[in-house]
Structures are given as C-alpha cells and as structure tokens.
Amino acid sequence: MNEKQSISIGSIVHYMRNVSSGGEYMPELSPAVVTAIHDDGDCQLFVMNQNGVYFCKSAYSDMPKPGYWSWPVSVL
Length: 76
Prior knowledge:
Blueprint: E1 12-16, E2 29-37, E3 43-49, E4 52-60, E5 68-70
Parallel strand pairs: 4-5
Antiparallel strand pairs: 1-2, 1-5, 2-3, 3-4
C-alpha cells in the first residue's frame, strides 16, 4: 500500500503516538482502524496498543513519525 491508495473507513493503518508532555510516553507504532475521514483530509483513528485503546485525529505521513498515520509496510 502507498500514499496513492485511497483511504476509507475501516482501513487498517499504523499510527505513531506523540511523546507526552511529561515524557512518560514515548513514540510507539500501533495498529489503528480509520473510523472517520474529515473534510480537511485528516482521519479519526481507533488506536490499539498493549496498554489499551484510544481515539485520535491524525494526518497522513509517507514515513512513520510521531502524531501521524502511515500505511503498514510489508516485510515479505
């Protein structure tokens, strides 16, 4: 998958969490499901990791970076 692929509700993506203001949480890559697509092109995500689940709004990045979603990379 790549940036030219169309995003849609239900798409599986990767989301990298931002560093928390207090530094207790570091960037972490997690699976996420797209739950909404906003008019500005950002997506609402349902993010899952080993500590629980949460929702966030995020924009696309072609490379994993904190605060953005990206397409999963195949390692085959």
